Structure formats: C-alpha cells, structure tokens
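Hello,

Following up on my earlier ticket. Below are the two sequence lines again, exactly as submitted.
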Amino acid sequence: MDTQWPRWEVFKQDAPGKPHQAVGSVHAADPEHALLTARNVFARRPQAVSLWVVRAEEVFSWTKEEIAQDPALQGGATPARGLRPTSYLVFRKTSHKRSMTFVDHVGEVQACSPQEALREALARFRDAEGLAWWVVAAEKVHRSDPSQETVESWFAPAKEKTYKQQQYYTTVSASRPKRRGEDEAFGEGCAHC
Amino acid sequence: MPGRYGVPTDPDYQERLAEFEARIRRGEKIEPGDWMPEEYRRQLIRMISQHAHSEVVGMLPEGAWITRAPSLKRKLILIAKVQDEAGHGQYLYHAAETLGVRREEMLEALLSGRAKYSSIFNYPTLTWADIGTIGWLVDGAAIKNQTMLAQCSYGPYSRAMVRICAEETFHHKQGKEMVLLYAHGTPKQRAMAQDAINRWWWPALMMLGPHDKDSPNTEVLVRWGIKTKTNDQVRQEFINEHAPEILAAGLSIPDPELRYDEKSGNWLHGPINWEEFWQVVGGNGPMNKERLEARRRAHAEGAWVREALQAYAARQQRAVAV
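Thanks for your patience. The regenerated structure is below:
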C-alpha cells in the first residue's frame, strides 16, 4: 500500500470578518501542497477569501461529553510552572441542529499545553455552549497569503467561470425550442476556433 | 477507545442506543467523536466509500470526451464538471475518514476490485450526445439521491452532500441544455439524442438501487436517518421529473409500459431488467474491466508524482531543521 501523505484539516473563511470554519481535510506532502489541494477541493466556487491548514494530529479535539467525563478538563486554567505559554487557536461547534454548522474559529488563548488551552477556552468563551472544541498551537497553522494580490489570484478565477453556476442555464426549457444560432451547438464542430 | 463505537455487548449499549435514536428523532446531526452504534458506523463507511469511488470512476466515461468536445465552451464546461467529480470524491473520502477508516485502505479496496461503485459507470460513452445525457439523466438521478442524503443524520456526510448537490445542479442543467439543443436540432442531432436516451434510460433507473423489497439495508438505514427515502421513492421522483420533460422535448422513452397514473400522480414504469443490474454490479458489465484497468493505470502512472512530492517535502523539512 503506497502513501497517500499525511492528512491536514482545512479551515475556510468565506468573507472578511467571518470565522474560519473546519470544512474537511486533504492529504498532502507539505503545507504548500496542502493549501493548494485545499483550494482545489474546497474553493472551486466563489466563496472563499482565506484558507488555513493544520496537520490532523496537531488538532486536539474534545466533545462536550468527553469534557463532562473528565474533571481535570473543567474549572479554569492553572498554568504549569516553568513553561512559557504560547498561543493556541480555539475552535468551537455550537449546533448539531443543521448540516451546515461547523467547528468555527472563536479566538486565541495563551497556554502551556493543549489541555490548558482547552480549560482556558472553556472559561473564556462562555457566550454559547460548545458541543465540540478544537485547539491548535498557533505555530502549527499554515495560512494562505492574505495579500490582495494572492487573494485575487487564488480565489477570483472561481468567480469568472460563470458556466460553473447553475444560473448560467436558467433558460433551459424542454418544450420551447431555441432558434438556430442562439447557441454555438449548431455551428460547433471545430474545437480550435 | 474500546466500546466507543457501541457494540451490542457493551453494558450500557441499550441506554446509549436509546439516547442516540432520540437525538436522530429530534433531527440532530451525529458528529465525529459522538457515540454511535458500530453498525451505524459500518453502514456509513460502506455507503460513503462506495459513493466516493463512484465519483472517482465517474470521471472516466466523461473524461474520455474532453479532447473531442465540439467547441471550446463545451470543453471548458466538461473540464469543470470532471474536476468537480474529482473534488466530490475527495469530500467523500474525507467524510468516511472521520469514521476512522483511511483513504489508503479505501483506494486499495477500489483498485483491488473488492470495493463497489455505481453500476452506471460501467456503460460506455459512444457519442457526444451521451455526455449531455449523462448530465441530464445520470446526474439527475444522482441529485435525487444526494438531495435525500443531504438530510442524512451524519453531519460530515450531510455537509458533503449539500456542497455536492449545489455543484451537481450545474452538471444536470448543462446536460439538459445539451440534449434539448440536439432534440431541437438537425435530424442527425435528434437521432443522436434519441439513441443516447435509449441506452441510458434503464441504467439510470437501475443506478438508484434494487426495489425496496430486495434491499436488505434499507430498513436500518431509514431507522437511523442515514437515508430518509427508499430506493423506490427516489426512483419515482426521478421518473416524475424527467419523463414528462423528455417527452415534451419530442424524444421517446424506451419503455412501452410507461404511463401517467392520474390517481397517484406518478409516472409508472415497466419491469426493470434486474438480471442486467446484478450482472453489472457483479463485474460483468460492458466496461467493468476497462474502468478498473484505467484506474489502476492512472494510479501506477502517478506514482512518480507522489514520490517527487514526498521527496520535495522531505528536503524542505531538512532545510528547516538545519
């Protein structure tokens, strides 16, 4: 069995100001490859401005149930002595009601371990109940280049390919024949012009 | 974590199962990491991986026509469509991976011939009109099934289906547009469209699966909200939408018994040749061998690309380490 490369979790941001959301995963050899593959798999339609990728094993996740069963994970963070805290990104899922609800980026905490980052997050992000929590060390997150130029070249082409949108075909009706010349189909035959 | 996925011998299995089924009745999605019966997980892996394989193999009959598309516009559309199918395969492999199976294992099952994929892709694409007909009928049937699966109780599968349906709608419409143009075109174009409908109609009905009475998995799939409709219900929806449209376009349907039933509001079809279906599923369809060989060849010929990327990644890592 040959390698399919490591798995990376993909986080997609649909518009500026919206959270990055966990949309799925890709297999890739390195961060650059993962970002390119993520673009091809998750941003073929115009709905993205930024992508993040993280090696799957760098994502620490807990369900509400797992947290409830583990007293060590509850009640505010107690920083471990001697370790320097680093930044962790926190992601949370707050609804199981509908399909299109995701594990969303909610913010960043300083902590010495993923467990401590979770405790810190549970204390800090209390505006809604988390059904699932993910934490990732900030340094493990690889981000698509936010410069305007890259955003354009990565995500704008999807907008220009209007034939990939169903609205492009709105006039299709079974019983009303199109007149000759309305479409190139009648003149088609030369793939080179 | 033993017992996490719920086998009936677990001491608290009955209690957990009742809780799980209550969640599904409330319309909640089951997400990765949540407790689920082992049988739910097994059924999902089976369905999702077959679905993923179908997307991947589904690129072959259409990909064969990219170089022969009759205009630049049609070529762009077909390339985008085939690229979508590749992406759909990847969404679905991902959804299956959330259940603990690995993509390596799934691909190995496909390439070794152990895994199944949709029977429809074992039929040949003989003319350009087949490409339109695949979009209209085959993707049309697939969308009926996938719209139902978008309601699925398993979050990752349902999300993959929502995305896929949005993209498949383009596939369906471009196919319908192509067939209608031919149906209203020259006598030769009309004949091509009719010939394609004649060959694809029955396989499109079959691809929605055996009749409910012959589908042993249906009951548990419906009970756990993996499916929300049965094969026969989805097939009926497909016929009700497409039969009148095909007839309105001045084309005929190769089923002498097909008729509209005033009382039920359904288009009733004649008997389906299930012998043919089981032959194709069993590996004896017109293109089974060729499809599998094409997949194996592509995989083998891509080996150097995978190796090169691996070597590049290793070199980058060494550069960082130094």
